[in-house]
Amino acid sequence: MRRLKATISYDGTLFAGYQVQPGERTVQLELENVLTKMHKGEKVKVTASGRTDARVHATGQVIHFDTTLAIPVERYKKALNVQLPRDIRVLEVEEMDNGFHARYSVSGKRYRYIWSCEEEQSPFRRHYAVEANGLKPDVAKMEEAAQYIIGTHDFTCFCAANTSVVDKVRTVHSLSFSWHGEELHMVIEGNGFLYNMVRIIAGTIWEVGIGKREAKEMKEIIASMDRGRAGKTAPAHGLYLEKVFY
Amino acid sequence: MRRLKATISYDGTLFAGYQVQPGERTVQLELENVLTKMHKGEKVKVTASGRTDARVHATGQVIHFDTTLAIPVERYKKALNVQLPRDIRVLEVEEMDNGFHARYSVSGKRYRYIWSCEEEQSPFRRHYAVEANGLKPDVAKMEEAAQYIIGTHDFTCFCAANTSVVDKVRTVHSLSFSWHGEELHMVIEGNGFLYNMVRIIAGTIWEVGIGKREAKEMKEIIASMDRGRAGKTAPAHGLYLEKVFY
Questions:
Q1: CA B232, CA B206: separation in Å to the nearest integer?
Q2: Which residue ranges does chain B devote to CATH 3.30.70.580?
Q3: Which of A8, A89, A90, A239 to mutate to test the interface with B (most CBs of B within 10 A)?
Q4: A-chain residues within 8 Å CB-CB of B91?
Q5: pLDDT in tens, B163-203
Q6: Domain boundaries A108-245, corresponding CATH code
Q7: How far is CA B89 from CA A183, B10, B37, B242, in A?
Q8: Hey, what CATH topology would domain B2-96 get?
């Protein structure tokens, strides 16, 4: 048995998320179907760095699986891509020692969130960036708000209320903004993220950008440990899992 | 009655083309539905510069229609976009005199054709560029082939065989190539294009790029006036109607 690590990209538009759910088309299901077929029906389990929700994209999700096939690692990528649907692509396959685990070995992640700020969003971007309805955010204020988020905090305020995780302390290493034409990108890196954390941060910091909140409120919101104090969860289709660090 | 000209963009992925066809979702149908609703049920006919096929995109299609509504021209764009599906966007609305006709007044068009030449096409580009399957074309050869196409010719060889148009003489003003990252763009401008002409040119010139044909064959192909001598019709989803000239 060899343990393989694969870096994959997917367009989340037509998936009910990463994780297998009965009756739904998911990324995990498509990966396991192809691998199981390649292994002549022997069920292959795929483990990811973490799940992503419906319509969330990935440009650098990481998975691992164990294989009994003799396919050389450098040919595995092609072998998978030939059979996978076109909205999932394998970018790289590496052989790891058996101690590697796509989820437990994670040391950090990077996400990107994209807003379209042109007057009318291009029809080609409707699944890939969130329309700002012509609003032009004040990025300096969003950067000011980001300073309260960077660091080690209990992020209960930015976590979906229905989560079972007990320890909600995480470290955000960086949180920055950049314009790409008329699209605003937020890039956030940290040692781990709670359920919906990036989308709630995006939703809250956006409200700062458009003048609905003051940047300094961020401090009180974090201290409150109250999800109700933070802003809306920003839409799923603006979010990209970009890199997983090990 | 005022005659309005609108410049529109659409993502062709989920359309059975521009023109109304019974039982199909088309761009014209969506436009006429919204306009007819705005006109309280009075049927509004929309005329485009020409049709586009299923899955072909537009970043600068032009339409005209006549309206009895008192909406100021500068508000018409918003009024339409609020009701249109998100894969069609109105970019501009202008008031014209009644002599303007979106189709008969056309003096030329510009199309773009896009190939993805990275080793594996990004899942985000699968509907928007044609995968080159890792082939790297020789663009200098494609540029050489383009020189035979530029000019005024009978383009029967590059016209779908089932067309009823009699005069197949057209003028191609320019035909050029440029790299955008790992995507190759072909931009073609002319006074008019026959049915499937851009896609057949793209398919034929691509075969020159990947070494399946010589650039100089282009001269014989055009002289032959034989569709069978030209290459394959390139896939629809790589094609964009970019600008209509009046």
A1: 9
A2: 2-96
A3: A89
A4: 120
A5: 888 899 999 999 999 999 999 999 999 999 999 999 999 99
A6: 3.30.70.660
A7: 17, 6, 17, 14
A8: Alpha-Beta Plaits (3.30.70)
